[in-house]
Write a structure and sequence with these properties.
This protein is α+β, with helices and mostly antiparallel strands. It is built from 7 helices and 11 strands. It has helices at 18-35, 78-84, 96-99, 122-137, 155-167, 198-206, 236-246; strands spanning 4-5, 10-14, 57-63, 69-77, 93-94, 105-113, 141-149, 177-178, 209-210, 215-217, 222-230. The strands form 2 sheets. Strands 1, 2, 3, 4, 6, 7, 9, 10 and 11 form a 9-stranded mixed β-sheet that branches. A two-stranded antiparallel ribbon has the order 5-8. Helix 4 crosses helix 7.
Length: 249
């Protein structure tokens, strides 16, 4: 996959070597470690690194003028997950229902965008790179964790889940079980709901579905909901929007 221009300001590419990967790990540390206050592996060096990184491909969104990395995601293929023995999401969920699906699978994780770009084109640029990778390798399913803020007594996460249940819930046969559930009990939709965060909203617009209740990640202070996109269900409008960029040389 070559670099894909999406605007005059940004482009997306795959990391080509260790230096590029460290740039992604440094951005992850600034967001997860400094902004969110999470204690991270490799944090003493200003990096967010773990045992999955060497098995993943890393997508980078860069500023065209400076080359600075302002967004990233890591991609774990089904074949490389077999080499390490599991998908990252299996730390949080029982994935037997997902693993039983036919076809090739790609896990998307550690996605983050610099704060000054979260309301702009960076997410769309990142998705165009992801679309290019999927087109090139022929994956049938994309999945990964999208994070929700917990709020007091986990009620903000509960409110967002109420909205998500209404808009984008997967069929019962492909739902997963969180290893640690939320503390709060579900509240009826007509009592409490909340808007979807930008990254989760982008997943839903593409056609992704939530595969059940979220995992309570106390280390990160978030709730993670497993999102699954069957490429056959990719929203046509967003398919044209992203795939036309992915098809460029």
């Amino acid at each position: 996959m070559s670099s894909i221009k999406h605007s005059s300001r940004l482009f997306v590419e795959l990391a080509r070597g260790a230096d590029d990967v460290r740039e992604a790990q440094a951005l992850r540390y600034r967001i997860f470690g400094e902004e969110w206050g999470v204690t991270l592996k490799g944090g003493e060096t200003g990096l967010d690194s773990d045992e999955f990184d060497p098995y993943c491909r890393h997508l980078l969104v860069r500023e065209s003028e400076t080359g600075r990395v302002v967004g990233c995601a890591r991609l774990l293929t089904d074949r490389n997950a077999a080499l390490i023995g599991r998908f990252y999401s299996e730390n949080e969920f029982d994935l037997r229902a997902i693993r039983a699906l036919p076809g090739r699978m790609l896990e998307v994780g550690r996605t983050c965008i610099a704060s000054e770009y979260r309301q702009g084109a960076a997410i769309a640029v990142l998705w165009s790179g992801l679309a290019s990778f999927v087109n090139l390798h022929g994956y049938d399913y994309l999945f990964g964790c999208a994070s929700l803020p917990l709020g007091e007594q986990d009620m903000q996460a509960v409110a967002i889940m109420n909205r998500l249940r209404h808009q984008a819930m997967a069929a019962p046969e492909i739902r997963v079980t969180p290893r640690i559930p939320l503390r709060a009990s579900p509240v009826p939709n007509d009592v409490l709901d909340a808007p979807l965060p930008p990254l989760l909203k982008a997943y839903v617009r593409l056609g992704a579905k939530a595969c059940g209740e979220p995992y309570r990640d106390a280390d990160f202070g978030v709730a993670d909901v497993l999102m699954l996109l069957d490429m056959n269900d990719l929203d046509p409008a967003y398919s044209r929007h992203f795939m036309e960029r992915a098809d460029r040389p």
